[in-house]
Design a protein that fits this description.
123 residues, mainly beta, 11 strands
Length: 123
């Protein structure tokens, strides 16, 4: 599975932005997709996720401002970000958890990261 994130850019405080993450390859094996973000000098932090069943989960700091959704074919995940503030400035990364197929070794789950997309919010 490969992940391609897009949609980052520059926005003024209070504005909105939508990020996309498109998965390709053996996408049927994905059990969860998520968004993380990272600022210089800090660890990558969880933003939100959506399971293959459609259950979403969010970090406390983004609730009611950010919404995760996906395309009908489940291969693209979106992060709608509203009411952005300067603290949301970060590189946003797409993440996926997949179950390896019967022919793969080692067995079990695999975590995949896409390249980040930069979001800059001016105050």
């Amino acid at each position: 599975v490969q992940l391609q994130a897009s949609g980052g850019g520059f926005v003024q405080a209070g504005g909105s932005l939508r990020l996309s993450c498109t998965a390709s390859g053996t996408t049927f094996s994905i059990t969860r997709m998520g968004w993380y973000r990272q600022t210089p000098g800090n660890q990558r932090e969880f933003v939100g996720s959506i399971t293959s069943g459609g259950t979403t989960n969010y970090a406390d700091f983004v609730k009611a401002r950010f919404t995760i959704s996906r395309s009908n074919d489940k291969n693209t995940m979106y992060l709608q970000m509203n009411n952005l503030n300067a603290e949301d400035t970060a590189v946003y990364y797409c993440n996926a958890i997949r179950v390896r197929t019967m022919s793969e070794r080692p067995r079990g789950n695999q975590e995949i990261w896409g390249k980040g997309t930069l979001v800059t919010v001016s105050s």
